[in-house]
Structures are given as C-alpha cells and as structure tokens.
Amino acid sequence: MLFHLLYPMADQFAALNVFRYLTFRTGGAIMTALIISFLFGPVLIDMLRSRQTAGQPIRADGPEGHLLTKQGTPTMGGFLILLAVMLATLLWADLRNGYVWAALGVTIAYGTIGFLDDYLKVKRKDSKGLPGKLKLLMQVVIAAVTAISIMHQLPPTLTTTLAVPFFKTVLLNLGWMFVIVAVVVMVGASNAVNLTDGLDGLAIVPVMIAAGVFALIAYLVGNSVFSNYLQLHYVPGAGELAVFCGALVGGGLGFLWFNAPPAKVFMGDTGSLALGAALGAVSVITKHELVLAIVGGLFVLETISVIVQVVSFKLTGKRIFAMAPLHHHFEKKGWPESTIVIRFWIIASILALAGLSTLKLR
User: Fold this and answer.
1) What secondary structure does DSSP assign to 143-196, as a single string?
2) Range of the domain at 323
3) Looking at the domain assignment, is residue 2 inside a domain?
4) Residue 9, in any domain of the structure
5) d(Cα 289, Cα 335) in Å, to the nearest integer?
6) What is the pLDDT of residues 112-150, one digit of tens each?
7) In the structure, how many helices (H) and strands (E) does the chain have?
8) How many CB atoms lie within 10 A of CB 30?
9) Spatial distance between the Cα atoms of 64 and 130, rounded to a whole number of angstroms
10) How many CB atoms within 10 Å of residue 98?
C-alpha cells in the first residue's frame, strides 16, 4: 500500500525513491510487524486469557511437568503473528505481485484451519480438535489450489519442474505431478512446524531463521543479475516475497517476546499450521522446495521421530524414543526445557547455513 501511494511521488520527492528498493521495504516490513506485535500483544493475550479460563488443554499423556508449568496458558496466540504479517505485507509489498497474494492467501487459510482446531480444543476442554482426516483434507485442497495458482504465474520453463540443490542445470520435469509435490511440501511443512511447537519458543525461532533464509533466496532468484551470477533459476517477481518473509521474521520476533519462557501465550495450531504453510509456499515459488528440507531440517527431524515411533510400535510393539516428537524424548531423559530449546535453535542455525551453502555450491 505504501509502495503504491508513495513511490509514484518519487519524482517530486527524491527521498521517496527508497520505496523502489526491496531491501528497504523488507526492513520496513520487519519493523512494522514487530511494532504491531508489541502494540496488540498485551491486548490479545488479555482477551484470550479472559475467554480461556482453563487455557490450552494439556495432553494427559504428555510430559508430567507440562501439567504444572503450562496449565492455564492461553492458546491461539498465532493470531498475533497472522495480524502482524498480514498488515506489514499489505503496507510494504507490491500488491500487484501475484506471488505475494498466493503466499499470504495460503498463510491465512491455514491459520483459519488452525483457529478452528484450537477453538474446538478450548471449547471442549480437550486436546483433540478437528478430526484429523477433515483437517488434512482441508489442507490438501488449499495447497492444491495454491499450487495451481503458483504454476500459472511461473515462467513456462519452471511451471512443472523441480530444481535439485547443488546441480545448476538439473530441472526435473514432473508434469502435473508437480501439483502433488507442491501439496506435499506445503502440507508437510505445515504439520512439521505444528509437531515442533511443543515447548516455549521452540518452533518460532527456527521459523524466523528459515524465513530469513528464504527472504534472501527470494531476493536472489527474483534478481536476474544475482540469479545469473549464482546460477540459480530466475523467477521474475519472486523477489517481492522478501517483504513477506521479512514480515514473518518481524511477527515472529514480536510473538517471541510473549512466548519466551515462561510463555504468556501459545501460538497453537493457528500459528504453527500457518507458518509452516507460508514457508512451504515460498519454497515452491522460488523453486527451492528441496532446500526447505535442509533449512527446515529441524522440523523434518521432529516429523521423522514421530513416524519412526509409530511404525516401530506398530511393527514390534516397542518404542524407539521415550516419547515423540523428539523434543519430548529429551524432556523424558531429564533435559531442562531451556536446554532443549536453545540446543534446537543451534541445530536450526547450522541447518540454515547448510541450506544457504546450496546457493553457491553448484
């Protein structure tokens, strides 16, 4: 909105020429989302606390300490992130860019699914919300619509192709199977972040790290000079997603202020499903779907731990981990929550650097 209002006036006021720079508008989105979070956070938390007298329902089969330390903490705090991201993106992005609307749309849509799930949990005072099959079906349908929308906007040579990290010229043409791949990426990323969101601050920092990485990736692949120099696949218009990713970083920082241990609010499915879907959509648009699995490797590990646990128990009747997802395993082993969270942040940072290395090692 600011881009459309102020940049046309650059001829009369030279200072307004800064609105043409993605880096400036990305920084503006970060600060705007952060300020919105600070302004509305206390009000939202008070409102949620007044309406959720018992707070987020805690799993009876979860770590015993959670019944003491997390009981009564309100959920649906992800709404604060969505509000900050949406307003910051609308203020600073070029709203003529279809990729921005695709990323923003899937984020809000998944956030709505998460909100319904959280609402039912709070209303029923039970850790079970929407039926699993219904929730998955809704996610798949939204992801499929988003994937088709993205494909219609991509350059013809990239419409149905999958880029492979470390190989500069390899593009796997999947045809319409690419829709399935894109759906798996968005749905998988969404649920992976959701599984990781089990401790105060555990999920939001890796999400911010991944969003920061993809802000850079979007900027580079959307610039013909940089993409040619780094031998990346050029996606015209994708650079505008740097503003959206910047809003994710700013909104995440603002939410972390209230989610830092001991958390005053949980993001719930409202936030985790939306944030994962946002990262998945950006990776599909920038043709870095496989790089997301590296940058978001922490989310992948958490998901694999659940899969391994379930498969092992069904086949052998034995569990590999004391409890899944993986962070609960370490809780059961006696690790303090702060230790788990900080070490997982370190792992997320290392994996982000590994993902960034794919931009040059080709």
Assistant:
1) HHHHHHHHHHHS-TTTTTEEE-TT-SS-EEE-TTHHHHHHHHHHHHHHHHHHHH
2) 19-58+70-357
3) no
4) no
5) 33
6) 999 999 999 888 777 778 898 999 999 999 999 999 999
7) 15, 2
8) 26
9) 25
10) 15
Residue type, 212: G
Q: Kindly provide the b/e burial profile for residues 242-264, where b requires at least 16 CB atoms within 10 angstroms of the residue's own CB.
A: bbbbbbbbbbbbbbbebbeeebb
| Ramachandran category for residue 171: left, alpha or beta (phi over 0 → left; psi -120 to 50 → alpha) | beta
Model-level pTM greater than 0.90? yes
User: Has residue 8 been placed in a domain?
Assistant: no
* CB-CB neighbours of 119 under 10 Å: 17
68 burial (CB, 10 Å; 0-12 / 13-18 / 19+) is exposed
**Tokens 């979860």 — which residue?**
62
- Could you give the CA distance from residue 339 to residue 241 in angstroms, rounded to a whole number? 33
Which residues on neighbouring strands pair with residue 163, listed in sequence order? 171
Tokens 């922490």: give the residue: 298
Contact 127, 59 (CB under 8 A): yes
Q: What are phi and psi of 171, to 5 degrees?
A: -135, 115
Strands (E), the chain: 161-163, 171-173
User: Which residues on neighbouring strands pair with residue 162, listed in sequence order?
Assistant: 172
pLDDT digits (tens, 9 = 90+) for 165-195: 887 778 899 998 999 999 999 999 999 999 9
Q: What is the DSSP letter of 317?
A: S
User: Would you say residue 135 lies in a domain?
Assistant: yes
Distance CA 140, CA 305 (A): 23
Q: Provide the domain count of the chain.
A: 1
Could you read off the pLDDT of 37-54 as tens digits, one per residue?
999 999 999 999 888 876
| Helix 22-51 / helix 241-259 crossing angle, nearest 10 deg | 40
Residue 321's CB: how many other CB atoms inside 10 A?
17
Residue whose entry in the numeric block shows the structure tokens 């499929």: 144
Q: What is the pLDDT of residues 295-352, one digit of tens each?
A: 999 999 999 999 999 999 999 989 999 898 999 999 989 999 999 999 999 999 999 9
Both tokens assigned to 280: 């998945």
Burial (Cβ within 10 Å: 0-12, 13-18, ≥19) of residue 15: exposed
